[in-house]
């Protein structure tokens, strides 16, 4: 049983940043409750970390573990597309919102 780890890069305390955090946490809870870690990095406070990861737009989420590393840019509102782009398992193909089964 894998534990998933994500880094979410946001720019300040905006509505879009908050939405991305909520959407990522909701997706993780649906797919693997209690088996994930989300680190939120505000690029306005830590620009060096964003530069190291070559973050060009926010919000950007990077799947850190388990490998392979994957990244998605946006507010992560479309759960199915986000899960597919991050290579996450068990996304319900029949649900337009990508709710987990």
Description:
With 101 residues, the chain is of the alpha+beta class. 31% of the residues lie in helices and 24% in strands. It has a 4-stranded mixed beta sheet. Strand 1, helix 1 and strand 2 form a beta-alpha-beta unit. The chain is globular. The C terminus is likely disordered.
Mean pLDDT, all residues: 88
Number of helices: 3
Secondary-structure element sequence?
EHEHEEH
Beta-strand percentage range: 15-25%
Q: Measure the end-to-end span.
A: 17 Å
Rg, nearest Å: 13 Å
General shape: globular
Low-confidence runs of at least 5 consecutive residues? 92-101
Number of strands: 4
Q: Largest sheet at a glance?
A: 4 strands, mixed
Query: Biggest sheet: strands side by side, in what order?
Result: 2-1-3-4
Sum up the structure in keywords.
24% strand, single chain, four-stranded mixed beta sheet, alpha+beta
Summarize the structure.
The protein is built from three helices and four strands; from the N terminus they run βαβαββα.
Task: Please outline the helices and strands.
Layout lengths: L3 E7 L4 H17 L4 E7 L4 H6 L7 E6 L4 E4 L5 H8 L15
Parallel strand pairs: 1-2
Antiparallel strand pairs: 1-3, 3-4
């Amino acid at each position: 049983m894998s534990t998933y780890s994500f880094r979410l890069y946001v720019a300040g305390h905006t509505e879009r940043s908050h939405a991305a955090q909520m959407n990522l946490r909701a997706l993780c809870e649906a797919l693997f409750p209690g088996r994930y870690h989300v680190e939120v990095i505000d690029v306005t406070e830590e620009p060096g970390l964003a530069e190291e990861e070559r973050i060009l737009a926010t919000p950007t989420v990077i799947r850190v573990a388990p490998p392979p590393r994957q990244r998605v840019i946006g507010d992560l509102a479309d759960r199915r597309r986000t899960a597919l782009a991050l290579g996450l398992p068990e996304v319900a193909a029949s649900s337009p919102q990508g709710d987990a089964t």
